[in-house]
Amino acid sequence: MDPVCGMQVDQTRTPHHADYHGSRHFFCSDGCRRRFSAHPQRYLAPQGADVEPVAEGTLFTCPMDPQIVQEGPGSCPICGMALEPMMPSLDESESPELVDFRRRFWWSLPLSVATMGLAMLAMTPLLEDLSPTLRVWLEAALATPVVLWAGWPFLQRWAQSIANRSPNMWTLIGTGVLAAYGYSAVATIAPSLFPPSFREHGRVGVYFEAAAMIVSLTLLGQLLELRARARTSAAIRSLLALAPTTARRINADGSEEDIVLSQVRAGDRLRVRPGEKIPVDGRVLEGRSTLDESMLTGESLPITRSIGDPVIGATLNGTGALLIQAERVGDDGTLAQIVQLVAQAQRSRAPMQRMADTVAYWFVLAVLMVALLTLLGWGLFGPAPSWTHGVLNAVAVLIIACPCALGLATPMTIMVATGRAAQQGVLFRDAEAIEALRTVDTLVVDKTGTLTEGRPAFHGVVTAAGFDADSVLRLAASLDQGSEHPLAAALVAEARRRGLGLQPVDGFDSITGQGVAGTVDQHALLLGTTSLMEEHGVTVDTMAAEADALRREGASVMYLAIENQLAGALAVADPIKPTTAEAIAALQRGGMRIIMASGDGVLTARAVAQRLGLDEVHGETRPADKAALVQRLQQEGRVVAMAGDGINDAPALAAAQVGIAMGTGTDVAMSSAQVTLVKGDLRGILRARQLSRLSVRNMRQNLGFALAYNGLGIPIAAGLLVPWGISLSPMLAALAMSLSSVSVITNALRLRNQGLGVQ
User: Fold this and answer.
1) Is 362 within 8 Å of 170 (Cβ atoms)?
2) DSSP E strands: which ranges in 235-363?
3) How many Cβ atoms are within 10 Å of 720's Cβ, its own excluded?
4) Please, are residues 587 and 685 in contact by the beta-carbon 8 Å criterion?
5) CB-CB contact of 291 with 316 (8 Å)
6) Please, which residues bridge with residue 126 across strands?
7) Residue 560 parent element (H or E)
8) Integer Cα distance of 555 and 93 in angstroms
9) E strands, 72-229, where?
């Protein structure tokens, strides 16, 4: 039986297995095997054991109150939300809270709609034959499971907010729901307690529909928030998935075996075959190969590694075989450190919607105080029956102060703004990014894939005396037809673009880390580095000045020799995106300080920066260096945005106030960032900043509308204008509450029609 999913597995047929503590376990799929390897204890607990389904010692924290940290799952003592693991695992199962709330929402929605329908149709001839008493009991029957079952988590948080003396939105929601439902329940069960003046059309009004709809709408809002929170851990899961699950260890007796990655120890000798990932950080003992390190370093070109050179875990080996010695394993590895940086930066973020929470805190206290004063004022000094009037007016205050409009003020704007931004190729991940982007004054940008295309392209050719450019390019491209190297692809693509006829290659040989050799049109050719030329006695000094000039332009240079005679030099570079210069200039005109931080060499980075008019450049920066740069700028009082596209940018994207990922980059970068530019066009930042300003203004307007309705309605509901013949029944209070929500939604929808032209 598969210990992860419980399926029956034929161990003679399945290729998926793992060894743990001397026992071999079999799995139905590689996904189950990976989950088991990450946390074996989780799936090997005895049947019926009363244990939590998490690894021992796992720490959990609250997404809204990150100072809350405890071992094992639970609820936040401040806000009542379910705690989440501080470090997500590869197990991508949904949050139990998300599953629970989704179930409660879909069960409650039909009941809430039916309750609302009964209440509305009661005022029409359609239900004139239905007994009012029966209708009210039907509403009670429909609303009761919604309030007491679907809304139970909210009522628990309401009670917790009171017990912990930390008033928040749950205090308002719980008070509003209980006030509307409790008043209606008493009016249904014991209507005789109310004087005749409370009756309308011979019955006491009930507000079951208001209580039920509040619960359903709140559940919907929580579903949207939980899904957004779940995406924040996707970056870490993507990083964890980069690491290979096994390594091939060479034992002391010379035998080789595949072991689980967690069993690798510093000093172990590991075999890395062509096309495999480097299992851990280490150093090359034997062999020579090119490694694709772009996923971690941002370097767009493969890096040659030979004896004595360091290698990074999770990077991809090319065509050569390597024997490496493990040096940094487990939490000491580069990938593990990047994971830790991303997780730490994500936890350090302030809770979203801080402004709404601050307003809600004082609003709750004010509403509760007004309701209490209303009850006491009418009860002690009002006309008979004074306490009944006091209860009724206090309930009206709580109903009109129900936080629907206040709760919708920010989310409605965010929903409309994110949809509007998506039409412009900008994806916002959360409300915090929309609020923060307008205040950004410093932009840190990666080079490869952000300012540039992220893939090599032909840059130029320099020829020796007696050779022409097209002939040199044609021969080099013909030779490179047999190579899968990105530089070779750039030469072949340029030759085909020019319509140069490529010749077949005889005796093709790929010389790892140096270049290629072969025969084209009966000429022996060499194409590659300076060291390759020197090994074959080809002098390149006559072209050194031209080659250095090309390198200063950010290009990689290859020499072509024909019959051991230098024929020319070909340059391949990562071209700057056509829209980059325009975007950089516009951002600088807007007062933005722009700093380049690239994993490429200093010479290459400076060459690109000079062409774009950037004065501040940091080359050869590793992931931790970029994150440290962002943090240093923040300590100087700058509001920092980071724009990047690679896994190496993930820690800095998470550490910045606003992380901006290129949609043409890696999934990890997009998961770590709060903003994604779908087309990888930096001009999207200009549109996003403008939308940020419009959205924040809209949110403030919505909060103003919500508070204005409450500010005008609460005194009327409290009965202050009764001497002038103006009063507000709970029914009218519910209507006013609905109107405030309508005004907020209408105002938020205006964002759909506001232009976002590049300035």
Assistant:
1) no
2) 246-250, 256-260, 269-272, 281-287, 289-292, 303-305, 310-311, 316-317, 322-328
3) 15
4) yes
5) yes
6) none
7) strand 555-562
8) 45
9) 84-85, 199-200, 203-204
Tokens of 530: 């300076």
Residue 53: is its pLDDT beyond 50? no
Mean pLDDT in residue range 79-93: 64
pLDDT reported for residue 462:
92
CA dihedral 90, 93, 97, 102 (to 10 degrees): 140
Inter-residue contact 446 to 672 (CB < 8 Å): no
What is the average pLDDT score of the chain?
78
Question: Nearest to residue 649, comparing CAs of 510, 378, 392, 454?
Answer: 454
- Bridge partners (DSSP) of residue 643 are 445, 660
Q: What is the pLDDT of residue 551?
A: 78
Question: 251: which DSSP letter?
Answer: P
CB 385 within 8 A of CB 195: yes
From the list 47, 241, 219, the residue with the least C-alpha distance to 149 is: 219
Helix, strand, or coil (residue 451): coil
CA dihedral (473, 479, 482, 487) positive or negative: negative
Q: Which residues contact 8 (CB under 8 A, 6 or more apart)?
A: 1, 2
Cis before residue 403, ω within 30 degrees of 0? Answer: no
Q: What percent of the chain has pLDDT over 90?
A: 13
Q: CB–CB of 695/749 below 8 Å?
A: no
CA–CA distance, 86 with 344 (Å, rounded to integer): 9
Give the span between the Cα atoms of 468 and 471, in whole angstroms: 6
| Contact (Cβ atoms closer than 8 angstroms) between residue 299 and residue 290 | no
The answer to whether the CB of 150 falls within 8 A of the CB of 219 is yes
Q: What are phi and psi of 553, to 5 degrees?
A: -85, 5
Tokens of 34: 């990976």
Report the C-alpha gap between 201 and 204 in whole angstroms: 8
The distance of Cα 544 from the centroid of its chain, to the nearest Å, equals: 47
**Does 48 score more than 50 pLDDT?**
no
Tokens standing for residue 710: 């409450």
Greatest Cα pair distance in the chain: 115
566: β partners:
561
pLDDT of the residue at 350? 36
Annotated catalytic residues are 446
Give me Rg for the CA atoms of the chain.
33
Distance of alpha carbon 162 from the chain centroid: 33
- Residues 307-344 pLDDT 10s: 888 888 888 888 788 999 999 888 788 777 667 655 65
Q: DSSP secondary-structure letter at 709?
A: H
Model confidence pLDDT, tens digit, residues 627-664: 999 999 999 999 999 998 877 788 888 888 888 988 76
Length of the chain: 759
- Is pLDDT above 70 for 406? no
Residue 54 has pLDDT above 60, yes or no: no
Arithmetic mean of pLDDT, 531-560: 86
Give which of 243, 278, 275, 277 is closest to 262, Cα–Cα. 243
